[in-house]
Amino acid sequence: MADARLIGTSEAVHIPSITLPTIMVVYQNPSDYPDKWVVRAFVGLTPEPQPRTVADSLEEARSVIPLHFTNIGRYAEDDPVIYESWI
After folding, report:
1. Around Cβ 30, how many Cβ atoms within 10 Å?
2. How far from 40 is each of 5, 21, 27, 36, 43, CA to CA, in Å?
3. What SS3 string covers 48-70?
4. Tens of pLDDT along the chain (87 residues)?
5. Beta-strand pair 46-47/71-73
6. How many CB atoms lie within 10 A of CB 61?
7. Contacts of 33 (CB under 8 A, 6+ apart)
8. CA 81, CA 27: separation in Å to the nearest integer?
């Protein structure tokens, strides 16, 4: 780490090598797809423009989530249509 240095709080930091995690959010009965299960992917806090899937069942919706992802559930503060999240 020959080029490591402390920076002041007023300096801008550019770190191009950081990759933000993809989070898959499973929705049950969202307003844009009533009576459906929807999976949306977020890179960091930014959603992809289109859902990964619109499904008739939870099992079908989960089928698009990569096998190495882990179900982290949901928070009490989440929108009620959020069923679970995977990271």
Report:
1. 18
2. 39, 14, 8, 13, 10
3. CCCCCEEECCHHHHHCCCCCCCC
4. 455 655 556 556 666 777 889 999 999 999 999 999 999 999 988 999 999 999 999 999 999 999 999 999 999 999 999 999 999
5. unpaired
6. 24
7. 27, 51, 54
8. 5
